[in-house]
Amino acid sequence: MTLLIVNDDSIVADTMKEEMDLAQYGIHEAFVAYDAQAAKEIIKEQEIDILLCDIEMPGENGLELLRWVRKEEREIECIFLTCHAKFNYAQEAISLQCQDYILTPAKYEDIGRVIQNVADRIQVRRKEQLYTEYGRHYFKKDQKTGDEGENVKLKPQEVVEMVAAYIMEHIAESDLSVENIADRFHFHPVYLNRIFRKEKQVSIGQFIINERMKLAALLLKEGCCSVTEVAERVGYAHYTNFYNMFKKTYKISPVQYVEEHVGGKGEKGGKMLS
Question: Residue 87: pLDDT band by 50, 70, 90 thresholds?
């Protein structure tokens, strides 16, 4: 689980991150932002699970930040911190699907317990979501216990390996994408990408690119077909896209790569492109 602490008092925010033993509450990585705008930038770049946010801040307050999170359809749970028990705050927080509201000052142990409860809730919801979305076609296996059949749930790691295997099998298809894969396996793209990134430390989109480039390099080394044919074999309908991605990956053009590894004999019966 990841946690984003948002508080305009930098000392409070930094001290909370440094002094709380967040790992014991299920948090493996924590980020800090001192205003709503900085928080938004972090949320755009990182997979945040829990937002621990002060309500009263200069500029955009915590409620406005959470409103933005909901508008962006981010699957983030929120815990609000405030020193004022105002009913209108609580009422709006609930309307934004935030049920966790801590009055400060509060002990770190009390804050930690709330974080743990939210982390547990997220885990339960994700397991249920994983089963519901995947179960229709792929998630149910029969395992007999006595005379009764029982559904066996695949672990997220197993789902990721199935997705990776599917990518490798369909690597030559130019329409291979996160959206198409998610539709094939009956997942929401954001959710599928999250569990994939967690297991592989890379997004599905980048995984596809990495595997295509590795396969392209292998085919070019073998010299079995032209550069343009290699582009097609690894799923690029347009050579220019293949050229740009190959050069970005290997720092040289496909033709230069052929010249270095097979003496310029990689393009058979056609014009060499660079």
Answer: low
Nearest 5°: phi and psi at 19? Answer: -95, -25
Domain boundaries in the chain? 2-129, 156-262
At 53, list the tokens. 């946010």
Neighbours of 169 (CB within 10 A): 10
pLDDT band at 92 (very low <50, low <70, confident <90, very high): low
Bridge partner residues of 3 (DSSP): 30, 50
pLDDT digits (tens, 9 = 90+) for 7-64: 999 999 999 999 999 999 989 999 999 999 999 999 999 989 999 999 888 999 888 9
Q: In what order do the strands lie in the sheet with 77-82?
A: 29-33, 2-6, 50-54, 77-82, 100-103
Whole-angstrom distance, CA of residue 44 vs CA of residue 176: 24
Task: State pLDDT tens for residues 225-256.
Answer: 889 999 998 999 899 999 999 999 999 999 99
End-to-end Cα separation, the chain, in angstroms: 45
Sequence-distant (6+) residues with CB within 8 A of 93 are 55, 63, 66, 78, 80, 99, 101
Report the C-alpha gap between 241 and 200 in whole angstroms.
25
CATH 3.40.50.2300 describes domain 2-129: yes
0.70 cut: is pTM over it? Answer: no
Per-residue CA distances from 74 to 44, 48, 70, 219, 224 (Å):
10, 9, 6, 40, 46
- Per the DSSP assignment, residues forming a β-bridge with 74 are none
Question: Of 45, 116, 117, 118, which Cα lies nearest the Cα of 77?
Answer: 118
Question: For domain 156-262, is the CATH number 1.10.10.60?
Answer: yes
Taking CA atoms, 34 is separated from 14, 54, 97, in Å, by 10, 10, 23
